[in-house]
Specification:
The protein is an alpha/beta fold and 181 residues long. The protein contains 8 helices and 6 strands; from the N terminus they run E-H-H-E-H-H-E-H-E-H-E-H-E-H. Helix content is 38%, strand content 20%. A 6-stranded parallel β-sheet has the order 3-2-1-4-5-6, sandwiched between helices.
Length: 181
């Protein structure tokens, strides 16, 4: 089974006035839409949300980004681009990495995980590394991802590509060809 995880396609990363804006968010959203039709219900959307009370190193993180300390139902955490209607399953996590027990269960021990979304240099990277550590084959659709900036995006893709064969950086077309769709 191949499962698509669409990482954090939320207003906080799409809004150009947000301190966390991903400049190429729109291009990533286009790539995500191209992937969705190839996966049917084998899709999980994730949302980064702030914790109720930051702990550990997250306290310093949110001291730097206090605007983000909002409840999960705040507008900045909503999915964009009509993705709510296309999201059969949504997982929230107050961490970069989205490789949670719930996502692991959806992928199953012998599955393959395709990643798309934002931010390549944080949540996509953290999710890819954790899933690979768990022994899951990970494909990252580079043209369906966006980073904090182009340099960070490219560096994160390079880092993930170093983990072959556990993680393979590819394109939307490469994923669709692999699936025969």
């Amino acid at each position: 089974m191949t499962h698509l995880a669409v990482i954090d396609m939320q207003h906080v990363f799409a809004d150009p006035t947000s301190p966390w804006a991903a400049p190429r968010y729109r291009e990533a959203a286009t790539g995500v839409r191209r992937l969705l039709s190839a996966f049917g219900d084998d899709v999980t959307f994730t949302r980064f949300v702030a914790p109720g009370e930051p702990a550990g190193a997250w306290r310093a993180y949110y001291a730097q980004w206090p605007f983000a300390l909002q409840p999960p139902d705040a507008a900045l955490w909503h999915l964009t681009d009509g993705f709510c209607a296309l999201a059969p399953q949504v997982l929230d996590a107050p961490a970069f990495g989205k490789w949670t027990p719930a996502l692991a269960e959806r992928v199953a021990p012998h599955g393959r995980l395709v990643l798309a979304g934002v931010s390549t240099d944080r949540s996509v990277l953290a999710t890819a590394l954790a899933a690979a550590d768990a022994g899951v084959e990970v494909l990252v659709a580079a043209d369906a991802c966006a980073g904090a900036n182009d340099t960070a995006h490219a560096k994160a893709l390079d880092m993930m590509d170093l983990c072959q064969p556990l993680i393979k950086v590819t394109t939307v077309a490469g994923v669709r060809a692999l699936l025969g769709r």
